[in-house]
Amino acid sequence: MRGFWCLFGLAALAAMPVRAADLVMNVTLDYDQERDHLAVKTVFNDLAAYLGGAIKSPVRLVMTQNAERVGERIRTQSYDLLMAPSQLIGLSMRNGYQPVARSIQDSQLVLVSRPGSGIKTFEQAKGRSLVMPHQESLVSYLLKGELNALGLSPKTYFGRITHVNKYEAALYAMEIGQADIVALKDTGADEWIRKNAGASRIKAFAKVPVTGVAVKAKLDAGVRDRIRRAFTNLDPGLETRLKRVGFSDLEP
Question: In what side-by-side order are the strands of the sheet with 81-85?
């Protein structure tokens, strides 16, 4: 009799629906984005819930602003999908991920000289002091890559390089004369030049997507396709809320 109940119990367990393991989604914010604002946390929690419904699998959100740690997790494929700045999407593509969507909005790295520095060209910037946002920011990654492509190195081309945590702090360092040149995104550069007569945009580099979405290549092809379709066909209300916290529409 006891054996009957054991068999009955096993049969009942086998008949129960098996809950799929959560897919882990990382959202990495760049260092010019507000991480702790309630609206930001809420919209990404809602995005995770929306994706879970769209792909018929629970999605667990991991949101961070520590690009270095995210890079380590990408190398070990700890995330199933990620929504992150371009440098991390590029890293993921070299570590077993496939890109499925990108922001329609592009960003461009520019170098701007402060008023009174006498710097009007990139050549005149050699040996001068440079301030940049966090070493793991999109801007810092882009500058290193762009100069390497020119056969140059930031450390040898500029006289002194200072990294600060936030994009706003880099501009403040310029305003108080702690640096001759600042590296930042084009949107912030144009606004700062308008407010500071005599400042010059001395060099602009290639444009890149602000944000990308990548999924682990090991995921089932059907799941990968549902993730792509979900991101590129977001609910209009959710899309509007994402724009308010700095994320533009996505395209395949």
Answer: 59-64, 23-28, 81-85, 211-216, 97-103, 250-251
